[in-house]
Amino acid sequence: MLFSRKFDPKVDLNDLSGRVALVTGANTNIGYATVKHLALKGAKVYLGSRSEEKGKAAVEKLTEEGVASGQVIALQCDIGTPASARKAAEGFLKLENRLDILGMLISKSGINVKLNPFTRITEMSMTNHFGTFQLTKTLLPLLAKTSQEPNSDVRIVNVTSEIHRRGLGSKPFVDFKTIDPFKETYAQDMVPWLSRYIVSKLAMVTFSNALQRKLSSTSIICISIHPGTVNTTFHTRFNYPRLTNFIASTFFKGPEEGAYNSVLAAASPVVRESADKYRGAYLMPVGRIVSPAPASLNTQVQDDLWETTEKYLQEHP
């Protein structure tokens, strides 16, 4: 981190007037806080939410909290399937002629971690990887166009998790040569759903690195980040919710501070000033560049994931 003190969006972000951002999973938790931080600095922010009703309610709440009316716009953005992700992206393209910040913040609280009986892929993987891939790919032409404008600063931020580097009990290395890692039950592992979650987060980091390689001829910066331990609603899915709620509320950061790493990645001038350093970076809170899992840096693994994903999307439009 290049800050000599604790990062503070109110102080460390420049005026973002004229810039347009889209943040997914933004009606609650870190996504909501990210939208708030960006909007308070002048950015026009589209608040992506699977539920149109919840998205509008979040915008109303932001207005009550001091965000200027019209600064944040609710956008129904369901990336739970490739088709719905494409629809959301196409809806955005009808509204805007520029996009400076694409923040993929996945709200985990309502996402199913069980295998879908039809696709044999979890909603978690569909959202974290396939939907993210499709939304990003559909918006890439606009992101690239914006990056060519004078004084542009286009960034793509994927919020993943430090858990992506954990080995899987039955599958110590995931190569993504086929779709199988996303369909594997991991029944032999101690916590099968957690292994499926790890695969989806590893895919997010790997995708971010692959995307940066493909955008090497542009000025676009792709960053994946770990938000840290944040008190969100995700812990309520575990056993003993009262205990986990006590632990989370006592020891974890609140969403406002938990969003600092994503906000820094999305809008801090330090990132653009040291662009070469941050291209394809993986950030621990707040703003600390560390090396992600070795598999995510392997260009063959990146290419395999890209090709496997493209093939799946062609077969399941």
Compute the number of strand runs: 8
Sequence of secondary-structure elements: HEHEHEHEHEHHEHHHHHEEHH
CATH level 1 class label: Alpha Beta
**What about the largest sheet?**
8 strands, mixed
Please give the share of residues in helix: 40-55%
By CATH, the superfamily comes out as: NAD(P)-binding Rossmann-like Domain
Chain-averaged pLDDT: 87
- Secondary structure class reads alpha/beta
Approximate shape: globular
CATH architecture: 3-Layer(aba) Sandwich
Tell me the domain tally.
1
Low-confidence stretches: 234-240, 243-252
Share of residues in strands:
5-15%
Question: Reading side by side through the largest sheet, how are the strands ordered?
Answer: 3-2-1-4-5-6-7-8
Taking all Cα atoms into account, the compactness measure Rg is 18 Å
Distance between the termini: 41 Å
The name of the CATH topology is Rossmann fold
How many DSSP helices?
A: 14
Keywords: Oxidoreductase
Pfam families: adh_short (PF00106)
GO molecular function, one term: oxidoreductase activity
Protein name: NAD(P)-binding protein
Fill in the keyword field for this structure.
317 residues; Rossmann fold; eight-stranded mixed sheet; 14 helices
Description:
Keywords: Oxidoreductase. One of its GO terms (molecular function) is oxidoreductase activity. This is NAD(P)-binding protein. The chain is α/β, with parallel strands linked by helices and 317 residues long. The chain has one domain: NAD(P)-binding Rossmann-like Domain (Rossmann fold, 3-Layer(aba) Sandwich), CATH 3.40.50.720. It has helices at 9-12, 29-40, 52-64, 82-93, 123-147, 180-183, 192-214, 241-251, 255-258, 260-267, 269-273, 275-278, 294-297, 299-315, and strands at 20-23, 44-49, 72-76, 101-104, 155-159, 221-225, 282-284, 288-290. An 8-stranded mixed beta sheet has the order 3-2-1-4-5-6-7-8, sandwiched between helices. Strand 7 and strand 8 (288-290) form a beta hairpin. Helix 4 runs parallel beside helix 5 (123-147). It starts with 8 loop residues before the first helix and ends with a helix. Mean pLDDT is 87; it is low at 234-240 and 243-252.
